[in-house]
Design brief:
Length: 81
């Protein structure tokens, strides 16, 4: 397995680029691997989705901050635990 396709630690925030449009990229929390796919979950909770590792990049500090802020805002509204 190449270094770039090695799974990150569980809980790491990453970005799914599979949609091919920078405006539609999704930040997700790495949850694990299932066969050739990586399982990601929205940072503020919700159902997991699968993505091929070649369509994942590390989240930038700004993307990580925005995702964590969105999660805390959702938590304060009672939308997530």
């Amino acid at each position: 397995m190449s270094e770039e396709n090695r799974p990150p630690p569980r809980g790491t925030l990453v970005v799914d680029t599979s949609r091919g449009d920078r405006d539609r990229e999704r930040v997700g929390e790495f949850r694990g691997a299932a066969g050739p796919y990586w399982m990601l979950r929205p940072a503020k909770g919700g159902p997991e989705w699968e993505v091929l590792p070649e369509h994942v990049r590390p989240a930038t500090p700004a993307e990580s901050l925005a995702a964590r802020t969105a999660r805390e805002n959702a938590r304060s509204r009672g939308e997530v635990a």
